[in-house]
Every structure is written in structure tokens, then in C-alpha cells.
């Protein structure tokens, strides 16, 4: 079964979160501060983390940064207060995959955690249901060329995404992507040449019907830093101003580059 580390100095909140996760078939462990959380993660690697930003000892942002440094693909869900938008955006920038604003519905939090676990390939117990996850949109008519499928993998120029192995390789070097970055890249590769606004990306990749759309903006920026030769002048993941984002596929073979 999947293991989730719950990091929150509010014992009451932590007990509720742990109880709901365990009821959903997840093994949950609680750490009350930053040092205890880092020690627990090092001693018994979790499959996902629920992280409060306001922690004693070492704050949540630094805990997230250290966890990400140790394991780039560890799913992290932040707990934030309504007035902490700046910290929330910063948390997303340093690697958190998702967030829930306090006060929150424990059921919603469990569904968010289950979604992250499934995307990371972890077993989430009998309470999880594939019906909770939105169905993937069909690929565009005419196939996926030049981004193409081969034995389940997706290719675009020097970029290869392997869903089964949960790996992305660019020019022979494996990229360290978070769960959401991986899913966002897979979405764009399976919908090349199409413009997606932030609302549609939030529904398709995050499975949210509503939420802070700056989450999408931050993840797009982080993804560009990993897949673009020059993130300040993107040629693959481009912005269509006033509309959204589009993946412009490489027109020919690996290493050929992308036209302006």
C-alpha cells in the first residue's frame, strides 16, 4: 500500500488527515515539524507528502525544497491558509504538485492525494477508484506526428516520454520532472498544435473544475525550464497571448530543432 507522510504542527488537523487517508487504504505517518519530517522521509521513503507551509523548526517551503532535492519525483501536496497566495506560488515554483486551502474538506484532500499517487504509479488501496480521475481526451485526428507513439512512448525531436517507466529523456539526458510536470508534458505531447487555456489544462491535467489558475502558469514555467533550450524564448511550449499555451512539435527527426 502507498505511504503518505503528513507534515503539520496542528495535531488536530494532522489526526483528521491521517484518519481519512487510512480509511482510504493509505498508510499515513505524521511528523509535527520540519526536522522530524525530513528524518521520517529519510528513514522510510513516502510515496507522497501532505505538507503544511507554516511549520516550526524548518518552514514548509524549505522542507519542500529539501525533499525535492533528495527525490525530484516525490508528489507533494501543500496545505495553505487563504492569505498565503505568495507562499503558495513559491511552493509551486520549488516543486509542490498541488495544494489545498485551509479550511478544507478532508474528502477533497484524500481525492487530491489519491490522484497524485495514481499519477505516480503508487497503489492507493481499495477505496480509490479510477472513476474519480477524469478520462483522458482522445488524441487529435490525424495521429500524433511529429510527436509520435511507439510502444506506449511519446517522441518529439530529441524528447522521449515513456509513461510505463515514468521517464522523460532529452538529448540522452533524463529529466527530473515532478508528477504534475510529467502529466502536463504528456498532455501537450498528445495534443500537439492545439491551444489550451489555463481552465482546460486545470480540468484535463489536474482534474479540477475550479481553482487558482496561477498553478498552471507556474507549472508551465517550470516545464519550460526543462524542455526548452532557451526557456526565455520557448519554441516548443509557446504562449498564445490572451488565449493559452500550445505545443509546437519538432518538424523532423531528433536534434533537428524547432522552427521559429
From TrEMBL:
Matches recorded under Pfam families: Response_reg, Trans_reg_C
Domain Response regulatory positions: 3-117
InterPro entries per UniProt: CheY-like_superfamily, OmpR/PhoB-type_DNA-bd, Sig_transdc_resp-reg_C-effctor, Sig_transdc_resp-reg_receiver, WalR-like, WH-like_DNA-bd_sf
Record carries keyword Disulfide bond: no
Keyword Chaperone: no
Modified residues (4-aspartylphosphate): 52
DNA bind region: 151-249
Alphabetized Gene3D superfamilies for the sequence: 3.40.50.2300, 6.10.250.690, Winged helix-like DNA-binding domain superfamily/Winged helix DNA-binding domain
Domain OmpR/PhoB-type span(s) in chain numbering: 151-249
Keywords: DNA-binding, Phosphoprotein, Transcription, Transcription regulation
Positions of region (Disordered): 127-148
PANTHER family (alphabetical): DNA-BINDING DUAL TRANSCRIPTIONAL REGULATOR OMPR (PTHR48111:SF4), REGULATOR OF RPOS (PTHR48111)
Protein name: Response regulator transcription factor
Biological classification of the source: Bacteria, Bacillati, Actinomycetota, Actinomycetes, Micrococcales
Amino acid at each position: 500500500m502507498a505511504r503518505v507522510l503528513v507534515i503539520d504542527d496542528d495535531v488536530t488537523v494532522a489526526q483528521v488527515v491521517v484518519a481519512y487517508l487510512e480509511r482510504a487504504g493509505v498508510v499515513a505517518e505524521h511528523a509535527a515539524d520540519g526536522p522530524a519530517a525530513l528524518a521520517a522521509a529519510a528513514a522510510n521513503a513516502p510515496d507522497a507528502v501532505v505538507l503544511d507551509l507554516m511549520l516550526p523548526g524548518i518552514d514548509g517551503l524549505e522542507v519542500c525544497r529539501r525533499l525535492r532535492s533528495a527525490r525530484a519525483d516525490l508528489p507533494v501536496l501543500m496545505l495553505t491558509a487563504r492569505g498565503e497566495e505568495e507562499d503558495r506560488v513559491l511552493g509551486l515554483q520549488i516543486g509542490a504538485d498541488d495544494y489545498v486551502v485551509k479550511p478544507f474538506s478532508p474528502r477533497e484532500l484524500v481525492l487530491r492525494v489519491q490522484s497524485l499517487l495514481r499519477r505516480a504509479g503508487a497503489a492507493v488501496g481499495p477505496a480509490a477508484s479510477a472513476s474519480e480521475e477524469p478520462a483522458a481526451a482522445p488524441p487529435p485526428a490525424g495521429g500524433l506526428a511529429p510527436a509520435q507513439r511507439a510502444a506506449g512512448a511519446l517522441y518529439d525531436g530529441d524528447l522521449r516520454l515513456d509513461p510505463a517507466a515514468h521517464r522523460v529523456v532529452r538529448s540522452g539526458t533524463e529529466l527530473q520532472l515532478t508528477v504534475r510536470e510529467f502529466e502536463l508534458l504528456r498532455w501537450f505531447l498528445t495534443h500537439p498544435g492545439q491551444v489550451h487555456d489555463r481552465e482546460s489544462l486545470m480540468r484535463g491535467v489536474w482534474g479540477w473544475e475550479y481553482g487558482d489558475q496561477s498553478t498552471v502558469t507556474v507549472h508551465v514555467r517550470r516545464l519550460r525550464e526543462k524542455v526548452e533550450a532557451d526557456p526565455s524564448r520557448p519554441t516548443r511550449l509557446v504562449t498564445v497571448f490572451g488565449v493559452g499555451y500550445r505545443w509546437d512539435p519538432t518538424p523532423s527527426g531528433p536534434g533537428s530543432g524547432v522552427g521559429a
